[in-house]
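Example 3.2
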Amino acid sequence: KNLSEVFVIEHELSYKPLENPVEKVLQTGHVYELANHTVLIAKDGTKRVIADSAAPIKDAAGNILGVVLVFRDMTEKMQLLEQVQRAQKLESIGLLAGGIAHDFNNILEGVFGYIGLASAYVSDSTVSEMLANALKSIQRAKGLTGQLLTFAKGGQPIKKIQSIVPLLNDTVQFAISGTKIKARFDFDENLYNAEFDYNQISQVVENIVINAVQAMPMGGTITVGACNVSFAPTQHPLLEGDYIKVTIADEGVGIPKEILNRIFDPFFSTKSMGHGLGLSTSYSIIARHQGTIEVESEPGKGSSFYIYLPATKEKVVEPTKPEIKKVLKGGRVLVLDDEAMMRDIMIKFLENLGFDALAVEDGKEAIDVFLKEKEAGKPFSALIFDMTIKGGMGGNEAIVEIRKFDPDVPAFVMSGYHDDPVLANPEQYGFNGGLCKPFTIEELEAMLAKYF
């Protein structure tokens, strides 16, 4: 057979046929190397990225006797390189996004709080409805900053060992409710458990399913599966071990090849109303679960997303409800926050709930005031500390010092970083509970009601 019949190559991005390197060498008499993005098409249609070179074989007189063709399969190496580059890009932009979202949450708390307080003093039904609608809009903004923060910091997932099957069933059915889409499920009978954050993984699945629904405007079926897989060393970019592989496949329009490697980039979207955070946030979440997301797609035939999560053979442990200590209602509360607006809104919140409140702006000042009032016989009944203080001591450092003098005073943490490690496990850091900004006066009351 002619070499051109068995050695078929094309450009990976343009799909245009490339010149046969052997013929090029025969024409020029020189070594010839293929350009980047060269794809070799196998007999079964499979495409592999290759690096290749061709060199002439010459006799003593310099006549060409033949050509030696050498090529290497670079597919897996290129996939690994793309994953590394994508992770680095997400990390860089994540630092910026995290700082913006944190500060924005502080601003939202002020708006949230003042509108909530104003609602209590309004009797006009029209004004009340307007304020309620404003609060709903802020809730949507809170959701967007939550996605930004998860993308930026991953929120340090609150992991627990559980089965992923209930999550997949519930999240998929919720995401397709009210649409023309049907879901088909296929789970391994002996599927492993995994240690993951339910809310974060649910967000990932929901993002992918919503994209699938939008890719099938005339209706169709989404196939959701989960199976056990194991990787040996160097078999996959992931570490050696057992994993759960979740597959979400649709019958939609598919993703054009020229943008397939960009779909996980932050702020990249093909939708006019999209903000481009869904899949980049999803990628960040899975990465912080020590897993990965892969995608295959063919225009006109649909897309398949593959989520890999580290598996465990440990059984699910049902959590026990801790006993909550009850103390007298009311009392004095010490608030720590470096934002003047937050200090003001917290004082108003607490006074509205029947407490006396004092607010300070630095952790060292909080320690000094706490000890001074304790020695004067006017101890505080509770503490509410912001975790991050710009240019000063934060709440997590201040509580360590205060616990040396009073291990029992109820203390609570608040932060603009949702799902922060301290918020996830406040008891490990000396706190009794916590709230993520922005929060309502009702959420504050519910937290304090457990202790007062």
